[in-house]
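Hey, can you fold this one?
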Amino acid sequence: MTAVLAAATLLLTAGCSSGDGGSSGGAGNAPTSRTTGQPEPSQRAGEDAPPAKGSVQVLRTVATGLSTPWGLAPLPDGDLLVSSRDDGTIVRVDDRTGRKTELGEVPGVSPAGEGGLLGVALSPDYASDHMVYAYFTSASDNRVVRMLYDEKKPSGEQLGAPDTIFRGIPKGVIHNGGRIAFGPDKMLYVGTGESGDTGLSQDRRSPGGKILRLTPEGEPAPGNPFPDSPVYSYGHRNVQGLAWDTRQRLFASEFGQNTWDELNAIKPGDNYGWPQAEGRSDESDFHNPIAQWTTEEASPSGIAYAEGSVWMAGLRGQRLWRVPLKGTEASAEPQAFLEGEYGRLRTVVPAGGDRLWLTTSNTDGRGNPEDGDDRILEVRVK
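Sure. Predicted structure:
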């Protein structure tokens, strides 16, 4: 662990401090965002691409005054559960009034650097089991837990004791991953980082630098590409965005180091190249991104799918990116919205139809908080 932390600290001081997840300085004469890769014929056939140009309209500010918000999970009644990275708490936000009610503090959270209480997700059987899942950094590792949410108890005491379902994900000052989401198959997908130890991404025995696929109990999910392994894809640097399209295809965002941030279409068992490749590569063994950006334009965290496009929140880039899709490829150049208007953008979650929930991340130590930060926005997209 000392070696991992030392490596993470070295990488942080080498210039990986301006994003959240390791995006560092500029890319010299590198061009701006561009789509990459060639679609397979089966991906093009029978699928209509959305318009090349879209739009974003901010409908309202749902809530203000949030402390280091990271994960967001909509409840069945429309209210929102939001995790605080540094406070280690989960709050419930009333969708109509913005009123915040603390469920409780998650025991064992050890916030430092990019670590803390990160992603949250509801059980696919939430209506009957009332389980809330969370990804957090402990004193020794990153782990996934589940907790009973009892609304009948007093505020601050509504979270049951955490049941750890998966542990041993490497932790570091940087690159802790943290996004969790249940897929259409009701399996739990987990985006992890390599904690600054780049060799972990190519080591399929390590859960670092991977997308993991687990049962709700934390076991390797049936049908995973490697026998008895939780690893779904590997060769990642730091995955903080997971989303599925209407045909149940998985997409993931990934922080680059100095040159290219990525949006990837995830294929089970594929190698996404890090640390040998950052962005598009000529190596046939590596799966190329469908779109890439210079690190100052993106530093991507959460993503969501709506209206035929992937919408990607940019931290250092301070903008919301639209990537229109045809199959598993970008059908037009990515388009940026809200550039610099709300500062750093962390999480984007479908809110139904053409609407998204969008959170800012200006109180995370790397932004410039203004009055009301951090906040949740409701936006309409097309």
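The longest strand covers residues 56-63. Let me know if you want another pass with a different chain boundary.
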